[in-house]
Design a protein that fits this description.
Blueprint: H1 21-32, H2 37-46, E1 54-58, H3 64-71, E2 75-80, H4 84-94, E3 108-111, E4 125-134, H5 140-151, E5 155-166, H6 173-182, H7 201-208, E6 212-220, E7 223-225, H8 228-237, H9 242-247, H10 250-261, E8 271-273, E9 276-283
Length: 285
């Protein structure tokens, strides 16, 4: 499935450095989150997600992947401790309080970690997903290992655990853009700057978390934007350039991003970057 180009979006008011977390979360939900929909659908198809599936989404963000699973009949639970604004948007999408037509009565969204679900009762989860791609920020795998270890007791033995990572740099146009702009963070030692994905990133995370390996795949996920402004806002909403912003400021990062995106701008003004993402299916022991 090809992402839909975003044609309408709210305008910034004031300098970019004053954009608050609510705007960033909305940019994520309205511009960027959908870019990985082809990957979500490929994983769900391979694992035959449907009625009877109990899914735990780690780092669920604003809930689009959970909504996709729920539309297939799965009972979904999402946890996220990184952004209260994204969690609020996930609740609006999934909880049955009159937030539109895409509500699911068996959904649960928790701002926190898997530890906050302990003792909640109910059957064990048979699918755990971590759709936030590994390999974008130095040290990102360490926190994921801890989260996976906390989630494992909530899943049944042999439950599928899905990890996602960026594909080879030469097949990810966005990777080169982020790597170039991410160099602004180099003055911050260990500051969480961009790094290229390594071939065995996902396997290393799974093994460190005590999971068994059970297959992998690759999915094309092109990033398509209506214009350069949308692309800048979408990429900033990922958080992958936060270290660059901290090392300089958001105005400088906006400028660098705009320049880096120029080769990917098409004659009609849209921005198109082909990418490949990799997923790993692991199993609880």
């Amino acid at each position: 499935m090809t992402p839909t180009l975003v044609r309408q979006h709210p305008q910034h008011t004031g300098p970019a450095s004053r954009v608050d977390s609510r705007v960033r979360a909305r940019d994520w939900a309205e511009i960027q989150e959908r870019m990985l929909v082809p990957l979500h659908e490929a994983v769900y198809e391979r694992l035959e997600v449907g009625g009877g599936t109990r899914l735990l989404g780690l780092g669920c963000g604003s809930g689009l992947a959970l909504l996709t699973a729920a539309s297939r009949g799965a009972a979904v639970t999402g946890v996220d401790d990184s952004s209260p604004e994204r969690v609020r948007l996930a609740r609006e999408r999934l909880l049955p309080e009159g937030h539109g037509t895409h509500t699911r009565g068996d959904a649960r969204i928790v701002r926190g970690t898997p530890a906050d679900l302990a003792g909640a009762g109910g059957p064990a989860y048979d699918l755990v997903t971590a759709f936030e791609p590994v390999g974008g920020v130095a040290g990102d795998s360490d926190g994921l290992v801890d989260v996976l270890e906390a989630a494992a007791p909530l899943a049944g033995r042999g439950a599928a655990v899905v990890l996602v990572g960026w594909g080879p740099p030469e097949r990810c146009a966005t990777s080169a853009v982020l790597r170039g702009v991410g160099r602004l963070a180099e003055p911050l030692r260990g500051g969480g700057g961009w790094r290229a994905a390594r071939r065995d990133d996902l396997e290393e995370v799974a093994e460190r978390a005590g999971l068994g390996l059970d297959g992998s795949g690759r999915v094309a996920c092109p990033f398509g934007y209506a214009d350069v402004e949308s692309a800048v806002r979408g990429l900033l909403s990922t958080g992958l350039l936060d270290a660059a912003v901290a090392a300089t400021d958001e105005v400088q990062v906006d400028k660098e991003l705009t320049e880096a995106l120029h080769p990917h701008r098409r004659p009609d003004g849209t921005v198109w970057m082909p990418n490949v993402f990799r997923y790993l299916i692991a199993r609880t022991r």
